[in-house]
Amino acid sequence: YKDTFMTKVLTREDTNQPYWKEKFITRLPTLFAEKNKSKYREKHRGVVPYETLTYGDIVSTITKTGLEICNDIKMGKQIKRDSKTYKKELGDFCTQFGYEPFKPAPSKTKKLQNQKRDKKYYERKQFEKP
């Protein structure tokens, strides 16, 4: 997206107009664009200063934000994996010391399966033709 946008905009005479800089950010995926705008608002007292921003500043901020999001996703996945390991280790620890083993909460899928199984299904009545 960046390369295509830059090649089209940089050939124009009004390249440095705030409109194009704003358009560059707003055409990003919605949540990603909002996250970038909020970073600028934090730095500049609630306003995005499109007049003073350069395309290099915008691209570097977008890159940093993208890396932060990717790292957050990776950390979330790692925490999820680690929590499963920790629950197992805690259960082993409890049994070794004679305590009741730690039982993790049943997963959502098991709850859904039980709900489906407990549901009563009614047969559809066949209507006779007069």
From TrEMBL:
The lineage of its organism: Eukaryota, Viridiplantae, Streptophyta, Embryophyta, Tracheophyta. It comes from Cephalotus follicularis. Residues 98-130 are annotated as: Disordered. Residues 120-130 have a biased composition (Basic and acidic residues). Residues 108-119 have a biased composition (Basic residues). This is Uncharacterized protein.
